[in-house]
Every structure is written in structure tokens, then in C-alpha cells.
Amino acid sequence: MTSTTHQHTASDLFAQALRYEHRANPYPYYEQLLRQPVIRMDDGTWLASGHREISLLLRDPRISADRLPPQHQRPIRKSLLVEDPPRHDQLRRLVTQQFVPRVMGMRDHIDALVTGLLDAHTSERAGQLDVVGDLAYPLPVTVICELLGVPREDESLFGSLARRLTRGLDPIDTQTEDEIRELQQARGELVEYLEGLIARHDATGGDDLLSGLMHSQEPDGPMDPVDLRVTLGLLLIAGHETTVNLIANGTLALLRHPDALARLRTDPDLATPLVEEVLRYDPPVQMSGRSTLADIDIAGTTIPKGSRVRLLLAAGNRDPQRFADPDRFVPDRPDNAHLGFGGGIHYCIGATLARAEAQIALTALARRLESPRLIADPPPYRENAILRGPERLPVSFTRLVPGAGEA
Amino acid sequence: MPTDSPPDARELRLVVDLNRCQSYGQCVYAAPDVFRFHGEEALEYDYAPDPRLRREVERATAACPVQAITLGRATEPAPLASEPVQ
């Protein structure tokens, strides 16, 4: 009976970790889950929390990215996020070819956007800033819109759609019936919006990513209208709902670790390893999902073929088998092979962009805010359990110095 | 490009453990002057990059998901690529 007690406990712990009242700090539950790096849950799904086990599963060819429950309605066309080779590789290659050249050399532009967003609040007197609403949200949204070729004015429309859709990623039993109904509606509205956008998009002009995908001369291109719409939706939502949490979680870590904040203020080179540590310590994407295409022997157990597996990335990032002192925020942590961007063939396509945005935003905050203080600790959190982060992050300061002269 | 830290004039020495490398390409994005893809998958890199590229190289080192890049100085013996951590 020992093993059933264990299984029961793991399911309970996972349910606890997902509860909204534990959103600000699910980590103590992850720590307990880590005692068994791979475990079967009461509902027949599997949970992997160990760093080594997650790393292995992410790279295992017997794993599929299709993570939908069997009873779930299948999408007409799968996005590359949930697609497997060879179709995944064709789609990803097309996106990478368009995405990477545009992201390279964007640092100066991101720097200018950050400067502009903070300039709007420059003050010689004490004041307040909502780091989410004033910086962490508008920055990645502006960047992704520019990159993709989506009008910034449409933000109020697809912003709320993105928000409703990402809530749909959370485990179904944590969502209310109203939320599920809303989700169906949001899916339809997004399809309509994206189809209109693609139709309106200047078929000849523009050097944005949407134009690039429409006219790709590569062997796998151009994308057909359905793939185009699905891919565009994925990039738009991913660009919307993840980097915001990286910047907000990073700000939160800095304000809770004033020594790290002081170091970043004088040493901009610290930004690089510091952002990696934020991705480990408090990752914007807490977990991912997969399914098994064959029986997989791992960690002394066998995950049967056809199982759904949750990969608890945020737990793997705190695995004491892999990281010394895992619950400590160490801004210059060496050998930081975190799982914050996933791994294997689905490794985050926007990683480079997200890193640049977070490095620049956090450095600017550290330099320009004098005596910053969290107004509420913990801050209010968003409902989402998987794409997890603060809803607002009000910070008080004694002065917000001008950005001019920034080197 | 920010150039606020004085460039470290000492020569850099770069080692990439190609057994660990999984072609994520993060180094290619972080330091395109030092790392590039040769064909579809094979990584090429400059083992003694210009010291002025130090910042980009450090970014590439931090960005590598499997920590396959080791950065040292030419005045020190070339670092051995470390074994995968278990």
C-alpha cells in the first residue's frame, strides 16, 4: 500500500501547487514532488519533476509534443508547438529563417523602447511605477507586433484574446465552465482576427515576418494560409504572455535581493547570468506537456505508451541533484543549465529575443530607479498557473532618473 | 551596442564541447561574429575570438542550454571541456 499512498500524495501535492492561493509560491510543493522524479498521478497521467528526467524526456524521440487529452477535440491543423517531426521541422525551419535575422541586431532598438517607456515616468520626486503595466507588458508586445507585422493599435483586441487563450493551457479541472466556454469563443475570435489580418496584409510590401512567411522562397515555403494563421497566432500569443513574466519575475527577484540589485546597477555585465538565474529560479513557463509513443523506462519506472506526461520545468530548475543550494537566487550562478526555455527540438524559438528584452529592461530598472521598494509582497498574481507571473507589480521609488546618457 | 566596459585586451580562448552541443544555435544568435552554422547542423567557431567581442562571447556562453561553451584566457592553459553533470 506504500506506493498507492505515494501516488495519492503526489496528486495532492500537484493539485496544491496549482491552487490560486499558492500562486505566489508553489515551490515548497515542487520540492516535495521532487522526492520522486517521475510519478504516475491518480488520473493516469504522469508527472516528471527531476532535472535529469525532464532533460531526457525532452530529447527522447519516443516522445510526442501532442499533449492534448484523448477526449479533447483535435485542432484542424497543429501548430509547431504540438507538432512532431517531420512536419514540426519544416514549420520550425521556416519560422527560424524569418525570425532569427530579424532578432539579431535588435538590442539597440529594444534599448530605445525601454528608455522611452521609463522616460514617461521620469520624476525628480518620489513616485510609483507598475512594472507590469508600464514596462514588462508593453515592451514585448510592441516588439512582437513590430516583428510580425501586426498593427499595435489592434493590441486591445488580441491582448484580451491572448489572455483568455493562455488560461486555456492550464489543467482543465482548474478552469470553470464559464472559462471553458469563453475559451471556445476566444479561439473563434482569434481565427477571425488573424484571417482578416493576413488578408489585409500588404501582399507585396513590408519586410516583417508575416510578409516573409507569405513569400518565402525556401524549399519548405511559402506557408499555406492555414499554417500561416496557426503560426502567427502561436508567435503572437507566445510573444505576449511569456516575456512579460520574465521581466516581472526578474524585477521581483531583484527587489527581494537588494545585493543583486546593487550589483546590477554598477555592473551591466551581470545582466547576462542574472537573467539565466531568473529563468531557473522563477521561470515564466512553469511546465510543459508531452505524450509517449512507446513504453519509456525512466527513474526506475515505466511510462506506458500513450501516456500524457507533464514536465514540471520549474521543479527541475530547483532539483538539488543538479543545482547547489537550489532555493537560493544566485545572480552569477555558474553552469546554469536551467529548463526555463524547455529543451530538445521544441526549445523556445524566441529565447534570444526574450533574453535581450529582459537583460535590457532589468538593467534599466536597476540604473534608473532610486530606492525602489515593493509596495505589496507578494504582489497580486494572474490566474494562470502555467504561464505564471504577477498581475501588477507596483514599486515605489524616491526618484526615477532620466535615461539620457545611458551608455 | 553598449561599450561601457573597457575591453579586456587579453586574448580569449574558446572551447566548445561538440559532444554536448545539440545545435540549439543560441550562441550563433548571441555572438554571430564568433559562432556560425556550417550547413544544417555543424557548428563552426573561432577559438581565439577578438577580445573586443568578449561581451558577446560571454552572452553566448550563458545562453548555451547545455553549457557546452567554456571561455578562458590564452595566458591560461586551454580549459578542458567538462563532462556532463549528472
UniProtKB/TrEMBL annotation, chain A:
Q: Name one Pfam family in it.
A: p450
**Which GO terms of the molecular function aspect are on file?**
heme binding; iron ion binding; monooxygenase activity; oxidoreductase activity, acting on paired donors, with incorporation or reduction of molecular oxygen
Judging by the UniProt lineage, the source's domain of life is: Bacteria
Gene3D superfamilies linked: Cytochrome P450
Q: Does the keyword 4Fe-4S apply?
A: no
The record ties this protein, via SUPFAM superfamilies, to: Cytochrome P450 (SSF48264)
InterPro entries in the record: Cyt_P450 (IPR001128), Cyt_P450_B (IPR002397), Cyt_P450_CS (IPR017972), Cyt_P450_sf (IPR036396)
Print the keywords alphabetically: Heme, Iron, Metal-binding, Monooxygenase, Oxidoreductase
Q: Which family does it belong to?
A: Belongs to the cytochrome P450 family.
Q: What protein name is recorded for this chain?
A: Cytochrome P450
What species does this protein belong to? Streptomyces chattanoogensis
Automatic annotation (TrEMBL), chain B:
Keyword Electron transport in annotation: yes
Q: Which SUPFAM superfamilies match?
A: 4Fe-4S ferredoxins
Name the Gene3D superfamilies on file.
3.30.70.20
Obligatory cofactor(s): [3Fe-4S] cluster
**Classification via InterPro entries:** 3Fe4S_ferredoxin, Fe-S_cluster_ET
The GO terms describing molecular function are: 3 iron, 4 sulfur cluster binding; electron transfer activity; iron ion binding
* UniProt keyword terms in alphabetical order: 3Fe-4S, Electron transport, Iron, Iron-sulfur, Metal-binding, Transport
Q: What does this protein do?
A: Ferredoxins are iron-sulfur proteins that transfer electrons in a wide variety of metabolic reactions.
The identity of this protein, by name, is Ferredoxin
- Species whose genome carries this gene: Streptomyces chattanoogensis
